[in-house]
From TrEMBL:
Record's keyword terms, sorted: Metal-binding
Protein encoded by which gene: glod5
This protein's name: Glyoxalase domain-containing protein 5
UniProt-recorded Gene Ontology molecular function terms: lactoylglutathione lyase activity; metal ion binding
VOC domain ranges (all copies): 50-170
Organism: Pseudolycoriella hygida
Amino acid sequence: MQCLFGFDYTCKKIFKSNSLKGTLSVGSCTVRKRQCCPDMSENVECKVESIDHIVLTVANIDRSITFYTNILGMTAKVFGDGRYALHFGTQKINLHQIGHEFMPHAFKPTCGSVDICFVTKQPLDLWMDKLKALRVTVEEGPVPRTGALAPMNSLYIRDPDNNLVEIAYYS
């Protein structure tokens, strides 16, 4: 019997390993809900609520700060031991310099692998004017999309590391 995440697992056959093929199989198990962890309660549902921050791995922190502050209106702040974050709304983006990531970090920190959507309160025609004035290429849009809350319109640009940045407006 093993307690794992508030469940009791009783297994007839524990593990069978085939080291030549690198496979691992588990025998038949019965699972029972049980109060085996003192701080777990059957009446408590554990689930996430919102995003506090994400981490972008970037080639050049100064260049990323310039883009996200000048183009998207975020605020750059230094925190901890010389770390950088971009604040907007109630969230932030922490910046990690490629090759100098803070632990723990993503399994394979890579520049340009993020596709992120930011919500704005300003109509996209104003954004189109701003982006044109700043000579930022709009890759696509405005186009209709399905957001987390409702239908929205979006446009797409790239940051200095080629991450796809979606700017979305709920009308």
